[in-house]
């Protein structure tokens, strides 16, 4: 028989077998009714994600980040030209969009305005002083690969910003470059717990002994999944990751949904006190806000105990935050967006006279200069980003962080996929991303006529309202927040 005919025969047999299987299986109605041809539905559905991105989605259309935002980050990370021509593609028709207020006479002759140094925990044995405005948010070794961490850590070292370890503990990949680190203590206390799962002073001291570890962050919650603990699917719990966390390999790593030992404001302050006194380093907590009443309770308790009992910082994550893996219902509906929670937190700090004592780090899609400037206007002292830095590493928003199949080698431990991410090359992109963000934030400050990004005020933001006129952000959230200069 001719080779071609043989192939045709094999194909025909294959199709007959597939038709019989489709007609007799019970799991998929479409295939039972439309044998063979029904498979195209599943193939096209799978391809749709990619086709939409390349051919159909408009520049400002996709979520969580649209192509215009991603392209700006890719260009900034490659240190290529970030300017655009002709005019803005941002749709200005929807009402409610924000605009910055330019000064009639902008600052002369300098596009970049420098950030002044800020000190966390000046009363601590080892306070932390930094000029870094934009920093790398928590992503655990586990959620992201060793190559991704190496690239982030080396880039952070070059850029002079800090890298938050995330809740998976401290790995050699975090430490290697010598960049500033914020060690996160998650609800499972990975890397900081004894054999019974309790917080271990010994482990805290071991961590604090690394000069790179500048601060400790207690993670109460994160924006993408308030009320749910960290979740690392079994496929991503490699023996190395399991060893650092002190758990069995290739079993789901599920953190408790809150610290068993923190059930009140008082217990939170006790916990902060313990971490800070054992480590001698500034200690704060990360949270997403929902119930504001709790903040009144916490701030009253701080004032009762004395200002030294306060956390050295609060990292406020917006409900729009990302995650390695989390339930969609929490991602979509739980917690308050940063646009509401940030001004409220700042105002309450002012009300309780804690504004100078507690630094505020904001996160939640603050990945482009304009969004960072908005947060600074509202009152943030520092900005954290996770996904902005993932894009700088080459993330293509494949939305597979939970599957170990990340095609860009960031959120996977598959050695072939991870090999695609060269830490040396991508570290330079992380560096450029930070520097270009700082540059363009500085450019906006320059247009607004302020000498320092933290001098930006709510009066620098105007919001277009229903009838087409605009109001100052200050009219909506009166600026109790005037920041110390
Ligand atoms: C892959 C991935 C892993 C994350 N892991 C952690 C974590 O270990 N601890 C934590 O507090 N937040 C974690 N987050 C949340 C981020 O730190 C950040 O708060 C959130 O994504 C908002 O910032 P973004 O909008 O710039 O991404 C993770 C986010 C991503 C995307």
Commentary on this structure:
With 485 residues, the protein is an alpha/beta fold. The protein folds into two domains: 3-56, no CATH class; 118-476, Aldolase class I (TIM Barrel, Alpha-Beta Barrel). Helices cover 39% and strands 12% of the residues. It is built from 17 helices and 15 strands. It has helices at residues 3-24, 29-33, 39-56, 67-77, 146-159, 172-175, 201-208, 239-245, 265-279, 293-305, 328-333, 338-351, 369-378, 387-392, 415-419, 423-448, 473-476, and strands at residues 98-100, 118-120, 128-130, 134-136, 162-164, 180-185, 213-219, 231-232, 253-254, 283-287, 313-317, 359-363, 382-385, 461-464, 470-472. Strand 14 (461-464) and strand 15 form a beta hairpin. It is globular, with a radius of gyration of 25 Å.
Task: Quickly describe the structure.
The protein is of the alpha/beta class and 485 residues long. The protein contains 17 helices and 15 strands. Bound molecules: flavin mononucleotide.
